[in-house]
Amino acid sequence: MFGVGLPEMAVILVVALIVFGPDRLPDYARQAGRMVRHLRSFAESAQADLRKELGPEYANLKLTDLDPRTAIRKHILEAIDAEDTAEAARTAVLRGGPELGPDERPPYDAEAT
After folding, report:
1. Which SS3 state, helix, strand or coil, does residue 6 take?
2. What is the pLDDT of residues 1-27, one digit of tens each?
3. How many whole angstroms from its chain centre is CA 72?
4. Is there a contact between 96 and 109 (Cβ–Cβ < 8 Å)?
């Protein structure tokens, strides 16, 4: 969760206990929980509205897909995969057949030997 481990969480809890005191800490924790639930419902409703407005072709849209880094990474990886597939096809044509797997043996031609 946000790169915070168990020791860091324990330190935050101890500091919160000292700053707010044991009497007010449960109220603040409740308020923080309500705020997180409210933000989560806001994000889900915004995502649902965006899907509805964009139409059925974007039914599986996630908000993380709108991150420019994710979009660029996705398109670059697709281009690399397409290039690798095209290179494998060119190699297979130059060799005269499909590429062999790790456990496959090449065909034996008695007339060639």
Report:
1. helix
2. 567 788 998 998 889 889 888 888 889
3. 13
4. no
